[in-house]
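Module 6 notes. Inverse folding takes a fixed backbone as the condition and produces residue identities as the prediction. Think of it as a translation problem where the source language is geometry and the target language is the twenty amino acids. Below is one complete input and output pair. Work through it position by position during the lab.
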């Protein structure tokens, strides 16, 4: 150029495909003078896997349009493939990253490797099948995926600057999500946390730019065909640090309300423990203490009145994958501490898990482990919960470990509710001879609770639909994988008739991520008497998830007469709920999960245990 005027354009490439939709279309020039181009599949999804087509690819050229000699495929501009609609690309100290739109679900942020195949159209999002099938597919998983869709678009790397909380993070402009998604990276370039900012404050965000000095600019895209009618004009906006800290406080971020009013009862809410790491199952112990497990293998004891927290034991050799394996279930012997036994279920490797009994010595605080059962495991779908029934037997729900044949196979323990003696034996009155199996046909059970009549209730994750709450019958078949939710499909109806499948009390679509549960029947909160309380995890499509469900039983105890929602989005992902003998309720959060389900709303206080109790009203004189 000369005199600030561009010279005549020179065409260096004229073979890049273009489409009216799913076109991709982002450019990046790297310091080594290479040109990267993102190209969508344009609704020709088969092209994303075809290395003779340029659609559904990340392309790499020299600046003159020639093909670099060090490209991964000989004489081809393709750098990576198997994309659907890549909308953003950025270079960071750790490598290259690109955003990609899914088909209404499983939007992705990918770390780009030369020659990497990112799966589309055969796979969207993180592979959640068995490890063997994921490995043999040859596809590279995204770092993160999002369902429901947030439509991630432009992406930038934030090295350092005035927003200290964003140091070493990817900033992602989101169209459908109408927010700035910030993904914190570790020293190797892998995600460790994520948060959303400017939620619906600006509208559809198309691009984000980070200047050398750390200033941040956003471009909105409200006037495109997907914008709302009458949307405001599009703008370029600079984010300026102000008096408000971008690391919002727990109360500001989570709409934390310390006082909640029901019809006739006022509830007081307070955090009794924080800075925990993924507490999983809680139980009331002697002297009103709360005993609980953490996913990494810690067993802790909390005095909720003083906040005093004590590490009881660290279970060795607990295996945690990048998804959701680890230590999950925990229970105290019903005669504890006279019978000083703790029960835990944890993954010992990617493919195996142990149900163990620990003998605790209060004098030395040492635990001696006895493995009662060894089961199949996976990076997720391990369940699980433990609960002692009124009969003194140990009930244990376990997921299918992504092995879909297991739930209907009575010779395999996964995908079941099991019933054991406290010593780990098979009770003689179990429904199937010489078998631990109490009920079967379960996918990924997450909660167990007994009501005052000794009836057993269970919560269970569906596969993108039909999360369930079940009333468990001895020897009952609950249908998975042939049936999910109610027997309402033609193929399901015939299987239900032939196999006497028991339908859930309630099924949730979209999924709520139902998790731990407890029975509440204390007079302190009359509105909640005779209710099953269920913690939920998922931030799903619509007004679902991340709340406490209060499922009111009718007089028969065989069905719910109403399901009420409380504390919606107040604390994030709720993993468990505990009801103590004096009528107090405790919730624990699960916000620090590093798989695609977590990391949305992590604060410095996470994870937490929250107390809910009725306010005592002094009588007027």
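Target side of the pair, the amino acids:
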């Amino acid at each position: 150029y000369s005199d600030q005027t561009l010279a005549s354009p020179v065409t260096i490439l004229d073979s890049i495909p273009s489409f009216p939709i799913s076109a991709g279309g982002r450019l990046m020039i790297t310091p080594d003078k290479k040109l990267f181009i993102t190209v969508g599949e344009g609704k020709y999804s088969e092209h994303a896997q075809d290395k003779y087509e340029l659609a559904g690819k990340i392309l790499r050229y020299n600046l003159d349009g020639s093909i670099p000699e060090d490209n991964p495929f000989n004489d081809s501009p393709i750098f990576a493939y198997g994309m659907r609609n890549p909308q953003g690309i950025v270079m960071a100290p750790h490598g290259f990253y690109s955003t990609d739109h899914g088909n209404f679900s499983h939007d992705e942020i990918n770390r780009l490797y030369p020659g990497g195949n990112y799966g589309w159209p055969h796979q969207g999002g993180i592979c959640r099948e068995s490890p063997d099938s994921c490995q043999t597919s040859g596809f590279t998983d995204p770092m993160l995926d999002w369902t429901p869709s947030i439509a991630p678009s432009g992406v930038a790397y934030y090295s350092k600057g005035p927003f200290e909380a964003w140091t070493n993070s990817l900033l992602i402009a989101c169209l459908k999500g109408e927010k700035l998604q910030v993904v914190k990276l570790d020293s190797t370039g892998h995600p460790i946390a994520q948060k959303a900012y400017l939620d619906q404050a600006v509208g559809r965000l198309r691009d984000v730019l980070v200047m050398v000095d750390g200033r941040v600019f956003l471009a909105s895209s409200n006037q495109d065909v997907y914008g709302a009618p009458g949307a405001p004009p599009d703008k370029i906006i600079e984010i300026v640090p102000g008096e408000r800290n971008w690391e919002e406080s727990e109360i500001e971020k989570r709409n934390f309300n310390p006082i909640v009013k029901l019809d006739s009862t006022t509830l007081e809410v307070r955090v009794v423990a924080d800075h925990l790491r993924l507490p999983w199952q809680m139980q009331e112990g002697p002297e009103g203490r709360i005993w609980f497990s953490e996913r990494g293998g810690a067993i802790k004891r909390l005095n909720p009145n003083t906040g005093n927290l004590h590490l009881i034991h660290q279970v060795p050799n607990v295996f945690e994958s990048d998804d959701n394996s680890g230590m999950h279930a925990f229970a105290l012997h019903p005669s504890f501490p006279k019978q000083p036994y703790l029960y835990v279920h944890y993954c010992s490797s990617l493919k195996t898990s142990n149900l163990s009994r620990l003998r605790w010595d209060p004098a030395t605080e040492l635990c001696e482990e006895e493995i009662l059962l060894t089961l199949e495991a996976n990076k997720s779908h391990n369940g699980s919960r433990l609960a002692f029934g009124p009969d003194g037997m140990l009930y244990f729900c376990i997921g299918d470990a992504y092995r879909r044949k297991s739930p209907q196979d009575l010779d395999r323990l996964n995908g079941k509710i099991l019933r054991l003696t406290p010593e780990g034996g098979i009770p003689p009155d179990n429904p199937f001879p010489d078998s631990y199996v109490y009920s079967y046909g379960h996918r990924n059970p997450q909660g167990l609770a007994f009501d005052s009549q000794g009836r057993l209730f269970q919560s269970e994750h569906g596969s993108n639909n039909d999360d369930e709450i079940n009333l468990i019958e001895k020897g009952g078949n609950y249908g998975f994988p042939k049936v999910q939710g109610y027997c309402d499909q033609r193929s399901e109806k015939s299987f239900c008739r032939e196999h006497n499948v028991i339908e859930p009390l309630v099924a949730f679509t979209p999924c709520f991520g139902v998790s731990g549960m407890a029975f509440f029947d204390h007079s302190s909160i009359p509105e909640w008497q005779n209710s099953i309380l269920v913690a939920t995890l998922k931030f799903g499509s619509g007004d679902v998830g991340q709340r406490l469900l209060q499922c009111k039983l009718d007089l028969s105890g065989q069905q719910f007469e109403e399901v009420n929602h409380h504390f919606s989005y107040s604390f994030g992902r709720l993993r468990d709920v505990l009801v103590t003998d004096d009528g107090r309720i405790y919730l624990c959060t699960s916000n620090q999960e590093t798989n695609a389900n977590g990391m949305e709303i992590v604060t410095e206080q996470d994870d937490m245990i929250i107390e809910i109790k009725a306010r005592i009203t002094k009588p007027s004189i």
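Reference fact for the lab report: Residues 490-499 form the longest helix (10 residues).
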